[in-house]
Amino acid sequence: MLSLGIFCASLFIFTGCCKSDLTETSERPAREFLLSGWYKEFNGTFYRDVPTENDEDGYKGAREKKHKTPHLDSNNSGTDWTATRRLPQALIIGVKKGGTRALLEFLRLHPDIRALGSEPHFFDRHYARGLNWYRSMMPKALEGQVVIEKTPRYFVTMETPGRVHSMSRDVKLIVVVRDPVTRAISDYTQIISKTPYIPAFETLAFKNHTNGEIDSLWSPLWIGMYAQHLERWLAWFPRTQIHLVSGEGLISDPAGELGKVQDFLGLQRIVTDKHFYFNKTKGFPCLKKPEGSSKPHCLGKTKGRRHALIDPGVIRTLRDFYRPHNRRFYQMAGQDFGWQ
């Protein structure tokens, strides 16, 4: 009897202590663990992706490193707070040099968004590796968080719409579009920054410079023919599942554009104008200082670089070329972007 009494008393003390520890953990507010937003990750328990390699936008992308992820079993609600890797519910599919990197970085401020920093190029280059490989690339996310990745090449790749549809009929698609002439010059500027001895823009843009025949298959010009690319996506997805972001709007009114994207994703408008300031040197918005950081967060040196100088006559010819393509795109989009 004495031994049994000692055993019971020990058991009581042990279970009491454990219960106290579990209660302290489980009663912590769940939102405390939703730390995927950019402000929290600098000081919080979880760490965002570390830049390691260049993506096609010239940004040092981020392959996901190990994350400290929350693991909670709430005794009160019975909810499993374990973060898992899952296929994305939203994709930023284009366009290159439209502002996709800025949009991704701005969206990462939202605590309910988990975004892959690098461009996985799954649907255009690595599709043979399978969905399990693709899922393994994604950041861990909690229930209720939206997983998102960006690869601008998706918008213009022939096979991609059908492949994305095979993954999910309900995926939400985001396209950042920009004046196609400005976009083409920006694209060329990036090209010559890596390959400085290529021919002049005017040489590459024309099949025959004498009669002004445009080479519409040259990639910097072909990408800007948005209507033909959007038409391919609309064969697989309804217009309501495709959200178009103005690249010019991301510069002039980032909070306004982000507000519409958050609505499209079904999220609360948490990223607002209080998060931005305009950097006159770079010529585009930057994020204000996060907690624990002494510097504001701007995109890399490849963003805001001075464009190559193009003959004004060539620019006028390109605007004439794109005008019918733009009108058709406006009709499909149900929106006039105001490009000249």
Automatic annotation (TrEMBL):
Transmembrane segments: none
Main location: membrane
Keywords: Disulfide bond, Glycoprotein, Golgi apparatus, Membrane, Signal, Signal-anchor, Transferase, Transmembrane, Transmembrane helix
Signal peptide interval: 1-20
The keyword Aminoacyl-tRNA synthetase belongs to this UniProt entry's keyword annotation: no
PANTHER family linked to this entry: HEPARAN SULFATE SULFOTRANSFERASE, SULFOTRANSFERASE
Name of the protein in question: Sulfotransferase
Organism: Umbra pygmaea
